[in-house]
Amino acid sequence: CSRAKDVTMPAKLPVSFFPPRSAVVDLFRGQLDYADQLRQGSDIVLYFFYAPWCGQSIAAREEIELVASRLSDQVLFVAVNCWWNQGKCRKQKHFFYFPVIHLYHQSFGPIEYKGPMSAVYIEKFVRRVMTPLLYISSRSKLLDFLSNYEPGVLGYFEFNASPQPPGYLTFFTSALHALKKDYLGTIRFGVITDRRVAEEISLEHSGSVYLHRHANTSLMYPKDIMNYTAENICKWALENREMLIRWLRPHGGKSLLLNNELKKGPALLIFIPYNPLAEIHPLLDEITKVALEYHKCNKSQAAEPDLQHLGDTDSPAFDSSVTDAHLKLSETFSITKYPCCNTVVLPQWHSISRTHNVCELCVNQTLGVKPDKVHVPHCNFLEIEAALDSFYLQEHTFFQVISNTIECSNFLSFYSPFSYYTACCRTVNRHFLSFISSEKTIFQTPKVAFSSHGKKDNTQFSIPHIEDRNCFIPDLNISNINITGLSCRTNKTLNLYLLDSNLFWIYAERLGASRSTHLKEFAAIVDMKEEVHYVLDQNQSLVGPTLENFIKNFSVLYSPLKRHLVDDSSVHFQEQRVITEVTTNTFQEAVFLSEKNVLLLYYAQWCGFCASLNHIFIQLARLLPPDNFTVARIDVTRNDLPWEFMTDHLPTILFFPHQRKEQSVKFPEDFPVNLPNLLKFILHHSSFSSSEPCTKECRHKESVLQQGHISHLEREIQKLRSEIHALHQAHDQLEAQLSEARREEQRLQQQKHTLEKQHKTLQLHSEQLQATYDQKNQELLEMAEKLQELADASENLLKENALLRILVASREGKLQSKDEIKEPLQSEQTPSEGNNASPSTAIATLEEKRIDNSDTIETEHSSGNRTE
Amino acid sequence: AAVLRSLGSLLCLWALRFPAGPAAAARGPDVASYRERVRAMFYHAYEHYLESAFPYDELRPLTCDGQDTWGSFSLTLIDALDTLLILGNVSEFQRVVNVLQEGVDFDIDVNASVFETNIRVVGGLLSAHLLSKKAGIEVEVGWPCSGPLLRMAEEAARKLLPAFQTPTGMPYGTVNLLHGVNPGETPVTCTAGIGTFIVEFATLSHLTGDPVFEDVARKALKALWKNRSDIGLVGNHIDVITAKWVAQDAGIGAGVDSYFEYLVKGAILLQDKELMSMFLEYNKAIKNYTKFDDWYLWVQMYKGTVSMPVFQSLEAYWPGLQSLIGDVDNAMRTFLNYYTVWKQFGGLPEFYNIPQGYTVDKREGYPLRPELIESAMYLYRATRDPTLLELGRDAVESIEKISKVDCGFATIKDLRDHRLDNRMESFFLAETIKYLYLLFDPDNFIHNDGSDFDVVITPYGECVLNAGGYIFNTEAHPIDPAALHCCRKRKEEQWEVEDLMQEFYSLKKTKKFTFKRAFDHGEGESPKDPEGASSEKAGEKRNSKKNSHSLLSCPSQSFNSKLAVLGQVFLDNT
């Protein structure tokens, strides 16, 4: 048993990790030396160091195989088990995580891949390692290279002189070096071999290196200051590159990436599905175009017109994507030719109301008298202003409209009697943007056009209760509709970031992206400092113009953007539930529009103090009269609420009395949350209009109340009945147990009796046995005595015998002496001989007797033992 | 133009689909398939235990036999009982309940650990008792206030009570189940062995009506509180007779761990501010003295100087505990630290030297402990972060690859080479498997958020039960907090509630005032309250006046928590 305790078992022997016919060489015994041998025969090698137990290695295995199947003719894929402690790999390398991917370009390496464990990304990186330099052979390729949003480094080398011009190898190595530092591969390296192409970017001498930048001036590598080494070039490029728009690719481990980026200021996060292997990225190009425009602060910059010029002249050979973007941009301009309209959001019913009356106010140009209006500027600022004024005067007529259909009406302008204005209004909930989007061909662009004029207008107009009006006053300078250089003009500069929605869609979902959408495109502005975020309406497709509008709307002084409230869409509003589950979307309806007193619990599923109160709230909800009271709750981790309804601690209990919903009261925090306290709290704060004189209505109410009371009592009675029933059952059970116990007692009593009897008989028996034992003992003693007597007697006899013998002998002696004298005395000798024989036989019989006696003693002893 | 544009985007979408779909990393582990793998792991171990080891305490997986370890009460079976129900195996649950009722006897001459017997046996029986109705067992009328399993739990707990008869109220570590404390018993007990009773014992007291259990548990907790050092820390071993600290290393791991855990869980279960304020004081000291870079080190309890810069596998429960009280950010950051250690070895070594980044000599084992997975389960509830599912995936893969043997799952003796030991601790089935399964089963009844509940009529009135919010004891046995309000306590409230309900239907003018007074203490102290209950509350209010918010609450999550997933952490602005 103790030996089994020390039984141990060595780890199982490693087995192959990749399937047998895989394109990956699987060194599952960790033969690192063999791996090094293999490397000699191949230019590009990818090492996949894994541990067989590691989940991440297992997940990455498929991806590696996928890459291997596509690149196996050019790249050698070697997988090494770096866990098995007998293997060479484990002995030589010490990894803190698995898998680790190392790449070698001939002797250069290892280059560690730290990007996403996804086949496309790995393949892209491997390809980058295979060809770290792009060969720029023509103007169009140069343009292509330069127009990319990612920073680019160009080297110019003349290949006519020697097989390899001086410095080329260093430049090549610096490209590989950059991949080590910058595993996402954002800096691209290109080499120009044609002198004429090089001149386009004013590179004249072979061996010069150039860093292209869009917003700032491009740089030449300062050979005279820094040594011309691969490390230096790489460092220089990394330090001086511009990041107009950055990819964010969290690696999954603990990281402060988002923290550091978002703390820099408000950030626009754009989620697009991205395939790094795709040849063209039209959407990405469009977005980067916006980013470039946004950051283009200095118009008089040298490099920029140059590029612009190239773009114009080279267009036929140009990559289609760029022209595509141009085309789209011009389309948006054409949009502005539609009648100028303005969205007006009327003041809400309630401060927290989720519904608005939204009106589309359009200058009806066909009715206008000014003939020159068709031309730019398309939308006369004064016209719209006048229209707004007229509209505000009549706004009360639009307040009452609560309809889901659009209702339009025409009215005359206040200022210019010749113009007509059309106002189309409807009530919408927070999805009002969808209304706009459905009509967006008309309304979209003018809506966002804006300038600082708003400030002045504020004082001019005396209708302060229309809060959003400033945003809708269009800019006089319509040509300024593009956002060129906006980043420098606004004090709310945005940092732009891209995220691959194939990998990081979860962040988009967290910010409120719809889960149902199959198109994974999303944009949000996150302002960490203000703790708000805005999202680009998902019904609008994510294209350049919408993005521009989004940015512009954010940048203006009185931003029309509404703080986005994330809502838990998985919850469905169910009336029949005991506790009503409220979400961001149903908050207004369930709390403020409800005709009942509402007790609202703010909770979170993870908070231990909330979950343990569940049963109390369920009991409360079951007790309170359902006609007058609602018990509701909201999970605040999944549902954002307007600031004024936020709470900093959970659980928080608010009570919204009927008819005084705005006077909500908070359950005092230092009171224990239990049923009586909650009832007292509700009773104390619920509104009862008992002071008023009793009218008919009041009496009706009272009767309803009493009806409720009756039903409550009935329920109570029902409950009591079942309680009584339970008590009866418990009573029965107890009774049964009692009688059982009694029976048991009786049984035990009886048992006791029988046991006692048995005991007595046993005692009797033992006494009897004792008696017989004593008796036997006595007998034995007597027997022993008798024996002793016999022995004594025999001894006496023996003594006598001996005496007799002596006597006989002496007599014989005498007789002999006499014989010598008297011969006739011889006849007397015979009877004395007979005498002599008899005692000896007596002794023999005595001996026999003794043996018999001892036998009987033994048998008596054994029987005595048995009785004991 | 719009049509053109959307056509364009359609085209580029088409281009994007080629050649490979979205990355596997983005999807996260396949929850359903991992759930089934965990289920298969359970049955592999459970069936071999029944076959080869029952009725011994534990299975020895390498030799395919059994042994008694903590007593002699078929420990693995008791411990695994509620896991059966969580996996949905009702019939086996019922069978085992019958087996235990007939087969387990606590009148045995065995020296048992007070702590282990409490958490595994008493805890296991209590949770099985509270779940037995859900498992379809025909319960007796007084349930949940009476029942055979409850009686067994009570019997086991009573066997432990002699250990608490010390001058300080802190219990001995070991007790003989038949004779009480042995004459020569050592008076040195670890801190956790003193402070890990309140959850089970308070539940017992509330269910049976006998206050003795809760009283001894509270007395022991208070004794520890009284003996904390000036800087607010506790060591890990103390003499229960003299109240002198024998081992003065302070930390959150071995020897101390469940003491802190039970302060929080006791506070939640009993809505007890006193326990929570104790914990918050400790929490402050722990943050001040032991926390470095989201690791928690060991320090000298009087001076606060670092004594051991190690991370212990047992400490991994801490993030889960933090998430229960709403400190999700810090929890996640610490969790991510611990996860890196798992990634390095495929398990958590008992000790991990943080500066050296390697295991500590003689502490390289991993007995398939649950703590990190437990934290992942709690945190997944709070954040839904796929990283946490990844830990679950890694745990399933590691345990299956490394420790699965023909007869069960063997403890890893050495994480450096994955040598196996001939043990399968009962917590593997009770905790490790349970938490793993719950991580992969977000719809399990244990995760009930209060949308479902049962109504039970007891002789004490109507009870709402199984409304979620289960408190796991430190051996992962769930206790329904609603059950504590069901038995004796319910009765006290009932008539008060009934009177209040009358108010709702009456004409409300007359009695309204009394409530006003009860709630308007802010303006002025009301001289006398008509109800005893409310004067009690007034007292409480005076005590807690300095706290702006109740101790029994969690802070709401900050704005940046929206983006704190996939390893991203944020630095506090505060």
Automatic annotation (TrEMBL), chain A:
It comes from Serilophus lunatus. Residues 710-800 form a coiled coil. Residues 815-825, 846-868 have a biased composition (Basic and acidic residues). The gene is Txndc11. It comes from the Eukaryota. The keyword Coiled coil applies. Gene3D superfamilies: Glutaredoxin. Residues 12-131, 564-687 form the Thioredoxin domain. The keyword Nucleotide-binding does not apply. Residues 815-868 are annotated as: Disordered. This is TXD11 protein. InterPro entries: Thioredoxin-like_sf, Thioredoxin_dom-contain_11, Thioredoxin_domain, TXNDC11_thioredoxin. Residues 826-843 have a biased composition (Polar residues). Transmembrane segments: none annotated. SUPFAM superfamilies: Thioredoxin-like. Keywords: Coiled coil.
From TrEMBL, chain B:
It comes from the Eukaryota. This is alpha-1,2-Mannosidase. It holds the Pfam family Glyco_hydro_47. Its cofactor is Ca(2+). Residues 520-555 are annotated as: Disordered. One of its GO terms (biological process) is carbohydrate metabolic process. Keywords: Calcium, Endoplasmic reticulum, Glycoprotein, Glycosidase, Hydrolase, Metal-binding, Signal, Unfolded protein response. It is found in: Endoplasmic reticulum. Ca(2+) binds at residue 474. The active site is at residues 116, 257, 350, 371. GO terms for cellular component: endoplasmic reticulum quality control compartment; membrane. The keyword Metal-binding applies. The lineage of its organism: Eukaryota, Metazoa, Chordata, Craniata, Vertebrata. Its EC number is 3.2.1.-. Involved in the endoplasmic reticulum-associated degradation (ERAD) pathway that targets misfolded glycoproteins for degradation in an N-glycan-dependent manner. May initiate ERAD by promoting the first mannose trimming step of ERAD substrates, from Man9GlcNAc2 to Man8GlcNAc2. Seems to recognize and bind to exposed hydrophobic regions in target proteins. Coiled coil: none annotated. Belongs to the glycosyl hydrolase 47 family.
